[in-house]
Recover the amino acids of this structure.
């Protein structure tokens, strides 16, 4: 297994800059999740690492090798696609074996590796079926087995869970995590789903408009977002942002800054600043309380206030973040 | 109005056309196959006489053989050419539109005009094809590599080859269908093949061909039917069924001559019926052979 390192990688499609000087490293044996909104360049990043797109500038290393100009097959990476990319005319066994057969590995080796990989992802029972006879989750397992079978230096996963229904997605997320622990491979996982990123990654890279905004453990990027974009992108509901005027009722903040407070840190208590409840959304055990002060609070559903009522709202200064109003960069409390 | 009636109503014009213009004439033709009919007197039932005569008719034998040989040679070549062009031209690049149009264009030229153009192209003396072949030849009648150029319209085998060559440029429909099919194949499968180090030939053999196979098989059946009929205009306009005699007489021309030149409607109908049965048989056989194979391609 090898680390993957991108150094000042740029990629343009005509007038559009997809990657704007990306520096990023996936450490050896690490599951790095690249997360960002649609069109932020995350899939392009993965395709550049795979060699399916040529970069305009910068270098890409896998292990100690500079692979920037190597053809895809010479980079020894496996890729898993959102659409599974299974061959409809081949059985599950033949699909898994595809890479080995194309490389003309001996039949004995093919048999052993296919058995090993299908055991690992749990597709042993339907090796003779064809893709159209499988569910989405089963198809993605087959795609994973096909990626495993070649023992690549690294795995690239391009939104592998996005086509699955909610239940299967959670199940496959756990499965991916288990698989990663078992084989200890370097994996780069691309997703637009921040929950997936936070639960799955050893580290997370947040990408926006072709730039890496922050890289860190899930705790770091969630707890100490480096800028307003990262703060707003991660977390459901999104972080509340208060201008100095709106924030003044709670705390004084410097001019030219914005205060950010996560909904779960907003308390509803009678001693707080008076506010009216506009709307209450119940999401299972939690309730999202929309207050008239442009503030959303996440509270346990069983202690939620009634809509239209008056409440008090407050939060700890320690839990609040400060961001520069112009640049969006994180500022520290003074 | 319920849905069944709506569907029936919408289908009605088509069904009417099909019945009036295809099914009824076909039935009449099949009926006439068992009669002696010259358009002047009423048809006279004569049982299987026409078929017995066809069996002994040397010219029908030649026409049938010509037709089958033509289909056997032209269909694979036509499909191969359409597939090759589709694979060459499915990507976007500068001028690809012009290339695609020129690949599709000959198909929309009226048959007669198309035949007349080839009559000029194939002219052994001043036709551009032989002028080109004789270019830089040692003498005015030989090619640069010292042989006589083909005598397109006067030598039997060369004439048959000429008709096949003509058929290779009317592949527009197959080309368009295969182009769209290729464009519809998921690009991830090709990304994957690239990551797995498949060669161009490997990708063609293991990805493109199997994925396009269902459409290719459909086109195979369609083109077989088409090829058994397509020879009519070229044989009539370009070679007139010769040379010297009957070497490019195919079943459609045989039917035409018997019906409209010799006024032997019953006899021509019998030949038509035979051709119909034979075509159906060939297509059915093709279908049988590929049916099991095809099952795997369902997506």
């Amino acid at each position: 297994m090898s680390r993957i390192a991108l150094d000042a990688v740029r990629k343009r499609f005509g007038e559009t800059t997809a990657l704007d000087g990306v520096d990023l490293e996936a450490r050896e044996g690490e599951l790095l999740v690249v997360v960002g909104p649609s069109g932020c360049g995350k899939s392009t990043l993965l395709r550049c690492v795979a060699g399916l797109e040529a970069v305009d500038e910068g270098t890409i290393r896998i292990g100690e090798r500079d692979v920037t100009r190597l053809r895809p097959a010479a980079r020894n990476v496996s890729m898993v696609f959102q659409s599974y990319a299974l061959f409809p005319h081949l059985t599950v066994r033949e699909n898994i074996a595809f890479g080995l057969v194309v490389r003309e590995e001996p039949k004995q080796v093919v048999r052993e590796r296919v058995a090993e990989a299908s055991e690992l992802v749990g597709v042993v029972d339907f090796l003779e079926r064809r893709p159209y006879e499988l569910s989405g989750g089963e198809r993605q397992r087959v795609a994973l087995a096909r990626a495993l079978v070649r023992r690549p230096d690294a795995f690239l996963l391009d939104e592998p869970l996005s086509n699955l229904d909610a239940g299967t997605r959670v199940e496959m997320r756990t499965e991916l995590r288990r698989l990663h622990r078992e084989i200890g491979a370097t994996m780069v996982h691309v997703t637009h789903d921040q929950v997936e990123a936070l639960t799955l990654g050893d580290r997370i890279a947040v990408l926006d408009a072709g730039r890496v905004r922050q890289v860190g453990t899930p705790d770091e990027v969630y707890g100490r977002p480096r800028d307003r974009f990262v703060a707003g992108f991660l977390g459901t509901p999104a972080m509340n942002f208060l201008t100095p005027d709106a924030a003044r009722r709670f705390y004084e903040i410097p001019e030219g800054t914005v205060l950010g407070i996560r909904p779960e840190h907003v308390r509803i208590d009678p001693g707080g600043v008076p506010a009216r409840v506009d709307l209450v959304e119940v999401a299972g055990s939690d309730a999202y309380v929309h207050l008239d002060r442009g503030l959303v609070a996440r509270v346990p559903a069983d202690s939620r206030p009634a809509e239209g009522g008056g409440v008090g709202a407050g939060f700890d200064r320690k839990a609040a973040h400060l961001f520069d109003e112009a640049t969006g960069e994180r500022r520290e409390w003074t | 109005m319920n849905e069944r009636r709506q569907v029936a109503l919408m289908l009605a014009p088509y069904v009417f056309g099909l019945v009036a213009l295809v099914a009824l004439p076909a039935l009449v033709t099949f009926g006439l196959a068992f009669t002696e009919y010259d358009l002047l007197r009423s048809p006279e039932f004569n049982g299987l006489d026409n078929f017995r005569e066809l069996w002994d008719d040397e010219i029908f034998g030649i026409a049938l053989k010509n037709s089958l040989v033509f289909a056997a040679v032209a269909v694979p070549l036509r499909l191969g050419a359409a597939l090759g062009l589709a694979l060459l031209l499915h990507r976007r690049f500068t001028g690809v539109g012009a290339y695609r149009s020129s690949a599709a264009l000959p198909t929309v030229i009226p048959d007669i005009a198309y035949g007349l153009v080839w009559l000029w192209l194939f002219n052994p003396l001043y036709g551009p094809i032989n002028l080109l072949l004789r270019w830089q030849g040692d003498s005015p009648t030989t090619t640069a590599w010292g042989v006589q150029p083909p005598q397109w319209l006067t030598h039997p085998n060369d004439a048959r080859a000429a008709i096949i060559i003509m058929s290779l440029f009317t592949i527009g429909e197959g080309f368009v269908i295969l182009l769209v099919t290729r464009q519809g194949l998921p690009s991830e499968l090709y990304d994957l093949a690239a990551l797995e180090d498949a060669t161009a030939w490997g990708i063609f053999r293991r990805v493109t061909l199997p994925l396009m196979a269902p459409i290719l098989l459909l086109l195979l059946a369609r083109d077989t039917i088409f090829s058994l009929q397509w020879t009519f205009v070229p044989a009539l306009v370009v070679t007139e069924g010769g040379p010297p005699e009957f070497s490019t007489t195919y079943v459609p021309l045989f039917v035409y001559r018997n019906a409209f030149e010799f006024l032997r409607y019953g006899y021509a109908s019998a030949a038509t019926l035979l051709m119909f049965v034979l075509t159906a048989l060939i297509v059915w056989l093709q279908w049988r052979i590929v049916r099991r194979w095809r099952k795997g391609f369902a997506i």
